Protein backbone atom coordinates (compact mmCIF):
# COMPACT_ATOMS: atom_id res chain seq x y z
CA UNK A 1 0.00 0.00 0.00
CA UNK A 2 1.35 3.41 -0.99
CA UNK A 3 1.82 5.76 2.00
CA UNK A 4 1.81 9.58 1.87
CA UNK A 5 2.06 12.46 4.27
CA UNK A 6 -1.02 14.02 2.68
CA UNK A 7 -3.78 12.91 0.34
CA UNK A 8 -5.80 15.65 -1.37
CA UNK A 9 -9.20 14.80 -2.84
CA UNK A 10 -9.89 17.26 -5.64
CA UNK A 11 -8.09 19.12 -8.41
CA UNK A 12 -9.24 22.75 -8.18
CA UNK A 13 -7.94 25.87 -6.50
CA UNK A 14 -8.08 24.53 -2.94
CA UNK A 15 -6.45 21.25 -3.94
CA UNK A 16 -3.63 22.92 -5.87
CA UNK A 17 -2.93 25.35 -3.06
CA UNK A 18 -2.78 22.43 -0.63
CA UNK A 19 -0.44 20.51 -2.93
CA UNK A 20 1.81 23.54 -3.31
CA UNK A 21 1.98 24.02 0.45
CA UNK A 22 2.82 20.33 0.93
CA UNK A 23 5.64 20.64 -1.60
CA UNK A 24 6.90 23.80 0.13
CA UNK A 25 7.02 21.84 3.40
CA UNK A 26 8.93 18.98 1.77
CA UNK A 27 6.11 16.49 2.22
CA UNK A 28 4.98 13.61 0.02
CA UNK A 29 1.47 14.25 -1.29
CA UNK A 30 -1.05 12.58 -3.59
CA UNK A 31 -3.78 14.44 -5.44
CA UNK A 32 -6.81 12.40 -6.53
CA UNK A 33 -9.07 14.16 -9.01
CA UNK A 34 -12.17 13.27 -11.00
CA UNK A 35 -14.88 15.22 -12.81
CA UNK A 36 -13.68 18.57 -14.06
CA UNK A 37 -10.15 18.63 -15.53
CA UNK A 38 -7.26 19.87 -13.44
CA UNK A 39 -7.88 23.41 -12.30
CA UNK A 40 -11.47 22.79 -11.27
CA UNK A 41 -14.29 25.28 -11.74
CA UNK A 42 -12.35 28.54 -12.05
CA UNK A 43 -10.17 27.87 -15.04
CA UNK A 44 -12.42 25.37 -16.81
CA UNK A 45 -16.02 26.51 -16.42
CA UNK A 46 -15.98 29.52 -14.07
CA UNK A 47 -13.95 32.68 -13.65
CA UNK A 48 -11.69 32.51 -16.68
CA UNK A 49 -14.06 31.46 -19.52
CA UNK A 50 -17.01 33.51 -18.26
CA UNK A 51 -14.93 36.69 -18.02
CA UNK A 52 -13.67 36.08 -21.55
CA UNK A 53 -17.23 35.84 -22.90
CA UNK A 54 -18.43 38.77 -20.79
CA UNK A 55 -15.71 40.91 -22.37
CA UNK A 56 -16.69 39.72 -25.85
CA UNK A 57 -20.25 40.76 -25.05
CA UNK A 58 -19.13 44.19 -23.83
CA UNK A 59 -17.08 44.79 -26.97
CA UNK A 60 -20.08 43.83 -29.07
CA UNK A 61 -22.79 45.75 -27.21
CA UNK A 62 -21.32 49.09 -26.11
CA UNK A 63 -20.06 50.31 -29.51
CA UNK A 64 -23.67 50.00 -30.63
CA UNK A 65 -24.89 52.01 -27.61
CA UNK A 66 -22.42 54.89 -27.12
CA UNK A 67 -22.94 57.23 -24.17
CA UNK A 68 -21.70 60.33 -26.01
CA UNK A 69 -23.83 62.38 -28.39
CA UNK A 70 -20.77 62.79 -30.60
CA UNK A 71 -20.92 59.04 -31.26
CA UNK A 72 -24.70 58.79 -31.52
CA UNK A 73 -24.65 56.64 -34.66
CA UNK A 74 -22.39 54.07 -33.05
CA UNK A 75 -21.26 51.05 -34.99
CA UNK A 76 -22.12 47.37 -35.04
CA UNK A 77 -19.19 44.92 -35.07
CA UNK A 78 -19.67 41.63 -36.86
CA UNK A 79 -20.04 38.76 -34.41
CA UNK A 80 -19.41 35.02 -34.72
CA UNK A 81 -20.65 33.19 -31.64
CA UNK A 82 -19.02 29.90 -32.63
CA UNK A 83 -15.63 31.62 -32.94
CA UNK A 84 -16.13 33.22 -29.52
CA UNK A 85 -16.72 29.80 -27.97
CA UNK A 86 -13.72 28.35 -29.83
CA UNK A 87 -11.45 31.16 -28.62
CA UNK A 88 -12.75 30.67 -25.10
CA UNK A 89 -11.92 26.97 -25.28
CA UNK A 90 -8.41 27.69 -26.56
CA UNK A 91 -7.83 30.17 -23.73
CA UNK A 92 -9.05 27.65 -21.15
CA UNK A 93 -6.76 24.93 -22.52
CA UNK A 94 -3.76 27.27 -22.41
CA UNK A 95 -4.53 28.47 -18.88
CA UNK A 96 -5.09 24.92 -17.66
CA UNK A 97 -1.75 23.82 -19.13
CA UNK A 98 0.20 26.85 -17.88
CA UNK A 99 -1.32 27.35 -14.44
CA UNK A 100 -2.11 23.79 -13.39
CA UNK A 101 -0.68 20.92 -15.44
CA UNK A 102 2.79 22.48 -15.77
CA UNK A 103 2.73 23.57 -12.13
CA UNK A 104 1.86 20.08 -10.93
CA UNK A 105 4.67 18.58 -12.98
CA UNK A 106 7.15 20.78 -11.11
CA UNK A 107 5.85 20.23 -7.58
CA UNK A 108 8.41 18.02 -5.87
CA UNK A 109 6.89 15.10 -4.03
CA UNK A 110 3.36 15.56 -5.42
CA UNK A 111 1.72 12.82 -7.50
CA UNK A 112 -1.60 12.67 -9.34
CA UNK A 113 -4.19 9.93 -9.74
CA UNK A 114 -7.14 10.69 -11.97
CA UNK A 115 -9.94 8.61 -10.49
CA UNK A 116 -12.87 8.83 -8.11
CA UNK A 117 -11.92 8.68 -4.45
CA UNK A 118 -13.81 7.36 -1.45
CA UNK A 119 -12.90 6.79 2.17
CA UNK A 120 -12.47 3.19 3.28
CA UNK A 121 -10.86 3.88 6.68
CA UNK A 122 -9.97 6.98 8.74
CA UNK A 123 -6.62 7.38 7.00
CA UNK A 124 -7.25 5.44 3.82
CA UNK A 125 -8.77 6.31 0.46
CA UNK A 126 -9.62 3.99 -2.41
CA UNK A 127 -9.37 5.07 -6.06
CA UNK A 128 -9.58 2.81 -9.13
CA UNK A 129 -9.43 -0.29 -6.96
CA UNK A 130 -6.24 0.73 -5.18
CA UNK A 131 -6.00 1.86 -1.56
CA UNK A 132 -3.80 4.78 -0.52
CA UNK A 133 -2.90 5.76 3.03
CA UNK A 134 -1.85 9.11 4.48
CA UNK A 135 -1.27 10.68 7.87
CA UNK A 136 -3.65 13.47 6.92
CA UNK A 137 -6.31 13.87 4.22
CA UNK A 138 -7.78 17.08 2.79
CA UNK A 139 -11.16 17.02 1.06
CA UNK A 140 -11.28 19.74 -1.61
CA UNK A 141 -13.94 18.21 -3.85
CA UNK A 142 -15.55 21.47 -4.94
CA UNK A 143 -19.18 22.06 -5.84
CA UNK A 144 -21.65 21.91 -8.70
CA UNK A 145 -25.02 23.40 -9.63
CA UNK A 146 -27.72 22.66 -7.08
CA UNK A 147 -30.90 21.33 -8.72
CA UNK A 148 -34.13 22.89 -7.51
CA UNK A 149 -37.16 20.84 -6.39
CA UNK A 150 -39.49 22.54 -8.85
CA UNK A 151 -42.17 20.25 -10.32
CA UNK A 152 -41.09 19.23 -13.82
CA UNK A 153 -37.48 20.37 -13.44
CA UNK A 154 -36.23 16.81 -13.73
CA UNK A 155 -37.94 16.41 -17.10
CA UNK A 156 -36.55 19.55 -18.74
CA UNK A 157 -33.09 20.06 -20.21
CA UNK A 158 -31.72 23.07 -18.40
CA UNK A 159 -28.40 24.87 -18.64
CA UNK A 160 -25.85 25.65 -15.95
CA UNK A 161 -22.57 27.56 -16.04
CA UNK A 162 -20.90 24.62 -17.79
CA UNK A 163 -23.39 23.87 -20.56
CA UNK A 164 -24.29 27.53 -21.18
CA UNK A 165 -20.75 28.13 -22.40
CA UNK A 166 -20.93 25.10 -24.70
CA UNK A 167 -23.94 26.20 -26.74
CA UNK A 168 -23.49 26.16 -30.51
CA UNK A 169 -26.06 28.87 -31.21
CA UNK A 170 -27.20 32.00 -29.42
CA UNK A 171 -30.67 31.50 -27.94
CA UNK A 172 -33.24 34.10 -28.92
CA UNK A 173 -34.64 34.09 -25.39
CA UNK A 174 -33.35 32.91 -22.04
CA UNK A 175 -34.96 32.50 -18.63
CA UNK A 176 -32.49 32.64 -15.74
CA UNK A 177 -33.48 31.22 -12.36
CA UNK A 178 -31.39 33.00 -9.76
CA UNK A 179 -30.37 36.63 -9.36
CA UNK A 180 -27.02 36.05 -7.69
CA UNK A 181 -23.58 36.78 -9.18
CA UNK A 182 -23.59 33.85 -11.61
CA UNK A 183 -27.13 34.49 -12.80
CA UNK A 184 -26.47 38.19 -13.38
CA UNK A 185 -23.19 37.65 -15.22
CA UNK A 186 -24.71 35.12 -17.60
CA UNK A 187 -27.81 37.28 -18.03
CA UNK A 188 -25.81 40.26 -19.21
CA UNK A 189 -23.46 38.11 -21.27
CA UNK A 190 -26.32 36.69 -23.33
CA UNK A 191 -28.23 39.99 -23.39
CA UNK A 192 -25.17 41.58 -24.99
CA UNK A 193 -25.10 38.76 -27.53
CA UNK A 194 -28.67 39.71 -28.48
CA UNK A 195 -30.70 37.30 -26.36
CA UNK A 196 -33.91 38.44 -24.67
CA UNK A 197 -33.31 37.66 -20.99
CA UNK A 198 -35.64 37.37 -17.99
CA UNK A 199 -34.24 36.85 -14.48
CA UNK A 200 -36.36 35.21 -11.77
CA UNK A 201 -35.31 35.65 -8.14
CA UNK A 202 -37.14 34.19 -5.13
CA UNK A 203 -35.88 36.81 -2.70
CA UNK A 204 -37.10 40.40 -2.55
CA UNK A 205 -33.98 41.71 -4.31
CA UNK A 206 -31.30 40.45 -6.63
CA UNK A 207 -27.96 39.83 -4.91
CA UNK A 208 -29.81 38.95 -1.67
CA UNK A 209 -26.66 39.11 0.46
CA UNK A 210 -25.58 42.50 -0.87
CA UNK A 211 -26.56 45.96 0.30
CA UNK A 212 -30.02 47.00 -0.98
CA UNK A 213 -28.50 50.11 -2.59
CA UNK A 214 -26.03 47.95 -4.51
CA UNK A 215 -28.71 45.55 -5.68
CA UNK A 216 -31.08 48.34 -6.71
CA UNK A 217 -28.44 50.23 -8.68
CA UNK A 218 -27.18 47.16 -10.50
CA UNK A 219 -30.72 46.11 -11.36
CA UNK A 220 -31.44 49.62 -12.67
CA UNK A 221 -28.44 49.55 -14.99
CA UNK A 222 -29.19 46.04 -16.28
CA UNK A 223 -32.86 46.88 -16.85
CA UNK A 224 -31.72 49.85 -18.93
CA UNK A 225 -30.01 47.31 -21.21
CA UNK A 226 -33.24 45.38 -21.69
CA UNK A 227 -32.98 42.62 -19.07
CA UNK A 228 -36.29 41.90 -17.33
CA UNK A 229 -36.31 41.14 -13.60
CA UNK A 230 -38.95 39.46 -11.49
CA UNK A 231 -38.13 39.35 -7.77
CA UNK A 232 -40.03 37.73 -4.93
CA UNK A 233 -41.35 34.98 -7.17
CA UNK A 234 -42.51 31.47 -6.37
CA UNK A 235 -41.88 28.95 -9.15
CA UNK A 236 -44.81 26.59 -9.55
CA UNK A 237 -43.61 24.29 -12.32
CA UNK A 238 -41.33 23.92 -15.33
CA UNK A 239 -42.17 22.14 -18.56
CA UNK A 240 -41.18 21.91 -22.20
CA UNK A 241 -43.58 22.63 -25.05
CA UNK A 242 -42.64 22.42 -28.69
CA UNK A 243 -38.98 22.78 -27.84
CA UNK A 244 -39.55 25.84 -25.63
CA UNK A 245 -39.00 26.04 -21.87
CA UNK A 246 -42.05 27.21 -19.93
CA UNK A 247 -41.80 28.44 -16.34
CA UNK A 248 -44.96 29.07 -14.33
CA UNK A 249 -44.45 31.61 -11.56
CA UNK A 250 -46.58 33.18 -8.87
CA UNK A 251 -46.08 36.64 -7.42
CA UNK A 252 -43.15 38.72 -8.58
CA UNK A 253 -42.29 42.38 -8.74
CA UNK A 254 -41.14 43.49 -12.14
CA UNK A 255 -41.18 46.62 -14.30
CA UNK A 256 -44.66 45.89 -15.56
CA UNK A 257 -46.26 45.62 -12.15
CA UNK A 258 -45.27 46.97 -8.78
CA UNK A 259 -47.60 44.91 -6.64
CA UNK A 260 -47.23 41.20 -6.11
CA UNK A 261 -50.08 39.18 -7.57
CA UNK A 262 -49.71 36.25 -5.21
CA UNK A 263 -52.86 34.46 -6.31
CA UNK A 264 -52.29 34.48 -10.07
CA UNK A 265 -49.90 32.37 -12.10
CA UNK A 266 -47.96 33.75 -15.06
CA UNK A 267 -46.19 31.62 -17.63
CA UNK A 268 -42.87 32.70 -19.13
CA UNK A 269 -41.51 31.06 -22.27
CA UNK A 270 -37.90 30.92 -23.45
CA UNK A 271 -35.68 29.02 -25.83
CA UNK A 272 -33.34 28.08 -23.00
CA UNK A 273 -33.49 27.86 -19.20
CA UNK A 274 -30.41 28.60 -17.07
CA UNK A 275 -30.29 27.43 -13.46
CA UNK A 276 -28.13 29.67 -11.27
CA UNK A 277 -29.73 29.43 -7.84
CA UNK A 278 -27.02 27.93 -5.69
CA UNK A 279 -24.47 25.14 -5.41
CA UNK A 280 -24.14 21.75 -3.78
CA UNK A 281 -20.98 20.16 -2.42
CA UNK A 282 -19.47 17.28 -4.40
CA UNK A 283 -19.28 15.09 -1.31
CA UNK A 284 -22.30 12.79 -1.61
CA UNK A 285 -20.44 9.56 -2.37
CA UNK A 286 -17.09 10.09 -0.64
CA UNK A 287 -18.05 7.91 2.32
CA UNK A 288 -17.61 10.69 4.87
CA UNK A 289 -19.87 8.92 7.35
CA UNK A 290 -17.47 5.96 7.45
CA UNK A 291 -14.71 8.11 8.92
CA UNK A 292 -16.74 10.29 11.26
CA UNK A 293 -16.75 13.44 9.12
CA UNK A 294 -19.91 15.46 9.73
CA UNK A 295 -21.64 17.28 6.86
CA UNK A 296 -24.69 19.52 6.64
CA UNK A 297 -26.58 19.15 3.35
CA UNK A 298 -23.33 17.84 1.89
CA UNK A 299 -21.16 20.74 3.08
CA UNK A 300 -18.41 19.51 5.38
CA UNK A 301 -18.32 20.91 8.90
CA UNK A 302 -14.87 22.25 9.85
CA UNK A 303 -13.48 24.31 12.69
CA UNK A 304 -11.56 27.56 12.23
CA UNK A 305 -8.46 25.55 11.28
CA UNK A 306 -10.34 23.55 8.58
CA UNK A 307 -10.21 20.38 10.66
CA UNK A 308 -13.26 18.08 10.61
CA UNK A 309 -14.61 16.01 13.50
CA UNK A 310 -12.02 13.43 12.43
CA UNK A 311 -8.65 14.94 13.49
CA UNK A 312 -6.93 13.29 10.51
CA UNK A 313 -9.28 14.84 7.94
CA UNK A 314 -9.35 18.48 6.87
CA UNK A 315 -11.47 20.19 4.22
CA UNK A 316 -11.32 23.38 2.17
CA UNK A 317 -12.90 25.20 -0.74
CA UNK A 318 -16.47 25.18 -1.99
CA UNK A 319 -17.25 21.87 -0.27
CA UNK A 320 -17.19 23.54 3.17
CA UNK A 321 -19.71 26.16 2.07
CA UNK A 322 -18.18 29.32 3.55
CA UNK A 323 -17.46 31.62 0.58
CA UNK A 324 -17.47 29.93 -2.85
CA UNK A 325 -14.71 32.05 -4.39
CA UNK A 326 -11.55 30.94 -6.17
CA UNK A 327 -9.36 33.16 -3.99
CA UNK A 328 -10.98 31.88 -0.81
CA UNK A 329 -10.66 28.25 -1.90
CA UNK A 330 -6.95 28.72 -2.61
CA UNK A 331 -6.36 30.42 0.74
CA UNK A 332 -8.34 27.77 2.60
CA UNK A 333 -6.46 25.00 0.80
CA UNK A 334 -3.08 26.42 1.76
CA UNK A 335 -4.14 26.98 5.37
CA UNK A 336 -5.67 23.51 5.64
CA UNK A 337 -2.49 21.87 4.35
CA UNK A 338 -0.26 23.88 6.66
CA UNK A 339 -2.49 23.15 9.64
CA UNK A 340 -2.66 19.46 8.76
CA UNK A 341 1.08 19.05 8.28
CA UNK A 342 2.34 21.28 11.11
CA UNK A 343 0.39 22.77 14.02
CA UNK A 344 -3.23 23.88 13.42
CA UNK A 345 -3.04 27.60 14.18
CA UNK A 346 -3.64 29.34 10.82
CA UNK A 347 -7.05 30.95 10.18
CA UNK A 348 -8.75 33.31 7.75
CA UNK A 349 -10.79 36.41 8.61
CA UNK A 350 -13.68 36.31 6.16
CA UNK A 351 -14.57 39.93 6.95
CA UNK A 352 -11.48 40.92 4.96
CA UNK A 353 -12.32 38.97 1.80
CA UNK A 354 -13.33 41.05 -1.24
CA UNK A 355 -15.71 39.71 -3.85
CA UNK A 356 -17.21 41.00 -7.07
CA UNK A 357 -19.91 40.55 -9.67
CA UNK A 358 -18.37 40.97 -13.12
CA UNK A 359 -21.29 42.60 -14.87
CA UNK A 360 -20.86 46.00 -16.48
CA UNK A 361 -20.92 48.01 -14.28
CA UNK A 362 -19.39 45.69 -11.72
CA UNK A 363 -20.44 45.28 -8.09
CA UNK A 364 -17.71 44.75 -5.51
CA UNK A 365 -17.74 44.52 -1.73
CA UNK A 366 -15.57 43.91 1.29
CA UNK A 367 -16.45 43.72 4.94
CA UNK A 368 -19.69 44.26 6.82
CA UNK A 369 -23.02 45.34 5.47
CA UNK A 370 -25.28 47.75 7.31
CA UNK A 371 -27.46 44.85 8.44
CA UNK A 372 -24.48 42.92 9.81
CA UNK A 373 -23.16 45.99 11.64
CA UNK A 374 -26.56 46.43 13.30
CA UNK A 375 -26.54 42.79 14.32
CA UNK A 376 -23.05 42.98 15.85
CA UNK A 377 -23.08 46.46 17.42
CA UNK A 378 -26.72 47.45 17.70
CA UNK A 379 -25.99 50.67 15.82
CA UNK A 380 -24.87 51.71 12.36
CA UNK A 381 -22.84 54.53 10.88
CA UNK A 382 -23.29 54.34 7.10
CA UNK A 383 -23.19 56.69 4.14
CA UNK A 384 -24.14 56.21 0.49
CA UNK A 385 -23.33 58.42 -2.49
CA UNK A 386 -24.23 58.05 -6.14
CA UNK A 387 -21.96 58.35 -9.12
CA UNK A 388 -22.97 61.96 -9.78
CA UNK A 389 -20.93 62.96 -6.70
CA UNK A 390 -17.70 61.79 -8.38
CA UNK A 391 -16.09 64.40 -10.71
CA UNK A 392 -14.64 61.79 -13.09
CA UNK A 393 -18.17 60.53 -13.75
CA UNK A 394 -19.17 63.93 -15.13
CA UNK A 395 -16.07 64.05 -17.32
CA UNK A 396 -16.78 60.69 -18.95
CA UNK A 397 -20.60 60.89 -18.89
CA UNK A 398 -20.95 57.93 -16.53
CA UNK A 399 -24.14 57.78 -14.47
CA UNK A 400 -24.03 54.15 -13.36
CA UNK A 401 -22.81 53.60 -9.85
CA UNK A 402 -23.10 53.89 -6.09
CA UNK A 403 -20.61 53.87 -3.19
CA UNK A 404 -21.53 52.84 0.36
CA UNK A 405 -19.28 52.85 3.42
CA UNK A 406 -19.94 51.25 6.80
CA UNK A 407 -17.85 52.47 9.75
CA UNK A 408 -17.71 51.53 13.41
CA UNK A 409 -20.26 53.65 15.31
CA UNK A 410 -17.67 54.68 17.90
CA UNK A 411 -14.11 54.21 16.61
CA UNK A 412 -14.98 55.26 13.01
CA UNK A 413 -12.89 52.37 11.66
CA UNK A 414 -13.95 51.32 8.15
CA UNK A 415 -15.83 48.04 8.46
CA UNK A 416 -17.23 47.66 4.96
CA UNK A 417 -17.26 49.24 1.51
CA UNK A 418 -19.71 48.37 -1.27
CA UNK A 419 -19.43 49.67 -4.82
CA UNK A 420 -21.29 49.57 -8.11
CA UNK A 421 -19.19 51.12 -10.85
CA UNK A 422 -17.18 50.31 -13.95
CA UNK A 423 -14.00 48.55 -12.75
CA UNK A 424 -15.38 48.21 -9.20
CA UNK A 425 -13.55 44.88 -8.85
CA UNK A 426 -10.25 46.72 -9.33
CA UNK A 427 -11.20 49.69 -7.14
CA UNK A 428 -12.29 47.59 -4.16
CA UNK A 429 -8.72 46.76 -3.17
CA UNK A 430 -8.15 50.24 -1.74
CA UNK A 431 -11.08 49.48 0.56
CA UNK A 432 -9.68 46.03 1.39
CA UNK A 433 -6.55 47.63 2.87
CA UNK A 434 -8.70 50.07 4.85
CA UNK A 435 -10.86 47.27 6.29
CA UNK A 436 -8.03 44.81 6.92
CA UNK A 437 -5.70 47.29 8.60
CA UNK A 438 -8.27 49.17 10.65
CA UNK A 439 -8.12 52.55 8.92
CA UNK A 440 -10.73 55.10 9.94
CA UNK A 441 -12.92 57.20 7.68
CA UNK A 442 -10.67 60.11 8.60
CA UNK A 443 -7.61 58.17 7.40
CA UNK A 444 -9.33 57.67 4.04
CA UNK A 445 -10.23 61.37 3.85
CA UNK A 446 -6.62 62.30 4.65
CA UNK A 447 -5.33 60.12 1.79
CA UNK A 448 -4.71 61.68 -1.61
CA UNK A 449 -6.38 59.95 -4.57
CA UNK A 450 -5.50 60.54 -8.23
CA UNK A 451 -7.83 63.12 -9.78
CA UNK A 452 -9.98 62.56 -11.72
CA UNK A 453 -10.70 58.88 -11.14
CA UNK A 454 -13.77 56.85 -10.33
CA UNK A 455 -11.91 55.43 -7.33
CA UNK A 456 -12.28 58.87 -5.72
CA UNK A 457 -15.77 57.62 -4.91
CA UNK A 458 -14.22 55.77 -1.96
CA UNK A 459 -12.86 59.04 -0.60
CA UNK A 460 -16.07 60.92 -1.39
CA UNK A 461 -18.22 58.46 0.54
CA UNK A 462 -15.83 58.80 3.50
CA UNK A 463 -16.16 62.58 3.26
CA UNK A 464 -19.94 62.13 3.38
CA UNK A 465 -19.57 61.39 7.11
CA UNK A 466 -18.34 64.95 7.67
CA UNK A 467 -20.00 67.13 4.99
CA UNK A 468 -22.59 67.35 2.24
CA UNK A 469 -20.63 66.01 -0.73
CA UNK A 470 -23.19 67.38 -3.17
CA UNK A 471 -21.95 70.84 -2.16
CA UNK A 472 -18.21 70.36 -2.66
CA UNK A 473 -15.67 71.60 -5.14
CA UNK A 474 -13.34 69.04 -6.66
CA UNK A 475 -10.41 70.03 -4.45
CA UNK A 476 -11.98 70.16 -0.97
CA UNK A 477 -10.02 68.14 1.62
Explain what this protein looks like in three dimensions:
Helix 3 packs antiparallel against helix 4 (81-105). It contains 12 helices and 22 strands. It has helices at residues 13-24, 40-45, 47-61, 81-105, 181-193, 212-223, 326-341, 370-377, 391-395, 424-436, 441-445, 456-463; strands at residues 2-9, 29-33, 110-114, 117-121, 124-127, 130-139, 143-145, 173-177, 196-201, 228-241, 244-253, 265-270, 272-275, 279-281, 295-296, 299-300, 313-315, 355-357, 362-367, 381-386, 402-407, 414-421. By secondary structure, it is α/β, with parallel strands linked by helices. The strands form 5 sheets. Strands 1, 2, 3, 4, 5, 6 and 17 form a 7-stranded mixed sheet that branches.
The total count of strands amounts to: 22
Measured on Cα atoms, how large is the radius of gyration?
24 Å
SS-based class: alpha/beta
Major sheet characteristics: 7 strands, mixed
How many H/I helices?
A: 12
Helix content: 25-40%
Q: Report strand %.
A: 25-35%
Amino acid sequence: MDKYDLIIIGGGAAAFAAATKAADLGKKALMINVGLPLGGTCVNVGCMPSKRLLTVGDDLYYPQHPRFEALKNGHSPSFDFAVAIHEKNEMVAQARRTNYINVLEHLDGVSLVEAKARFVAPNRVEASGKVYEADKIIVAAGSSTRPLPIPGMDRVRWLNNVTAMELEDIPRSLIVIGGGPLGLEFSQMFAHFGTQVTVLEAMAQILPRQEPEVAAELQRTLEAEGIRFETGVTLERVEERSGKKVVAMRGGKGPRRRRSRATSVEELTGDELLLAAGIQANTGDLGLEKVGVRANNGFIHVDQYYQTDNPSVFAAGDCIGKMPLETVAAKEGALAAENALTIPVRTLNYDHVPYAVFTNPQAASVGLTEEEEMRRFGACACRTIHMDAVPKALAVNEDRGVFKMVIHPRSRKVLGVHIVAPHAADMIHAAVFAVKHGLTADDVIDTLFVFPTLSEGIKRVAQAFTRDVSQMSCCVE
